[in-house]
Amino acid sequence: MSSVSSLNEDDKKRLKSYKVGRGRKGAFIYRNGRLISWGHSLDGIVGRDYLGLRVTIEFETAHDEALHVDVSKQNFVFPESLLNIIQRLLEIPKTTHKEVFAKCKAIADNDDKSPEGSKFNERNEDLSEEDPDEITGNIDVIKAKERQKKIASESESKKSEKSETKDSEESDVFQRIVYSSAIKGNKLWEAGLDIDHGSFSLVNKNHEFYHLIMANLGSSSWERQALEAIIYSLASAETNTLKNASLGLDDKLTSEQELDLIKAILEKFKKIFSHQLENWSSSNQDILKDD
């Protein structure tokens, strides 16, 4: 589950004792009291998402012919008539499984002990950040390093001033996503650069998209993390463009002027993006009621 890290040690041990996982789901099949197959899907009856569903099936030598058991006693074939019976018997357990796991997901997604963004940051602690042009060597390395220092210097106070994460909530994990109510204007995000860890994104909690969509998703839900991935990627694209982009105007612009021009272009992009998303949010206030 997504909130394992916020559990105490006793709860972690108890959770581990349940042994829920893909390797332990499905049918456990015995012949004459001996386990001969486990994790069997029963021809798809126990699908990949039924992690907590376990079925025990026992048969004896007398059933070998009906199940086409080979000499090794390891391979067998369930006749369709038997699979139909098993399917009917598992209808209620499968429904119960869905309800239980949906409840667990709802609890995990709305983990009050997990600050906004913490699950994304924990999950992506080792996420690599790359500019394809850096891989191919198609950048001015010296210029990029100078810009990196400048951008990081400008970003240094940005996160500490606008972050809403309390000191008691901070961890050793680098915060790629940080939520803030201190961002002015309607920008969905502000980008920053840490000299050691790379890009980070400040998410504007005043933006209409946050109020309409993000705030209504559990802070640990996969849906929230997917949106955070997009916002982080926008910030990463912004900082790497500032750091590495070249307009080919070295004969007309100083390095400082070129960087200012790139900033202005990116700010225009961000302004239009955020404005359009705000328009969409304002026009779709009832979207969550459609379900």
SSE run = HEEEHHHHHHEEEHHH
- Please compute the radius of gyration using only Cα atoms: 27 Å
Structural class: alpha/beta
Largest sheet: 3 strands, mixed
Q: How much of the sequence is in beta strands?
A: 5-15%
In the predicted model, the low-confidence regions spanning at least 5 consecutive residues are none
Topology:
Layout: H1 9-17, E1 26-31, E2 34-40, E3 54-59, H2 64-67, H3 80-89, H4 91-109, H5 118-123, H6 132-136, H7 141-162, E4 177-180, E5 189-194, E6 198-204, H8 208-212, H9 222-244, H10 255-283
Parallel strand pairs: 1-3, 4-6
Antiparallel strand pairs: 1-2, 5-6
Note the main attributes of this structure.
291 residues, alpha/beta, 2 domains, 3-stranded mixed β-sheet, 6 strands, 45% helix
Quick overview:
This protein has helices at residues 9-17, 64-67, 80-89, 91-109, 118-123, 132-136, 141-162, 208-212, 222-244, 255-283, and strands spanning 26-31, 34-40, 54-59, 177-180, 189-194, 198-204.
Task: Write a structural description.
The structure is a single chain. Helix 9 runs antiparallel to helix 10. Strand 5 (189-194) and strand 6 form a beta hairpin. This protein has 291 residues and is an alpha/beta fold. The chain has helices at residues 9-17, 64-67, 80-89, 91-109, 118-123, 132-136, 141-162, 208-212, 222-244, 255-283, and strands at 26-31, 34-40, 54-59, 177-180, 189-194, 198-204. The protein folds into two domains: 4-108, no CATH class; 113-289, no CATH class. The protein is elongated and about 90 Å long.
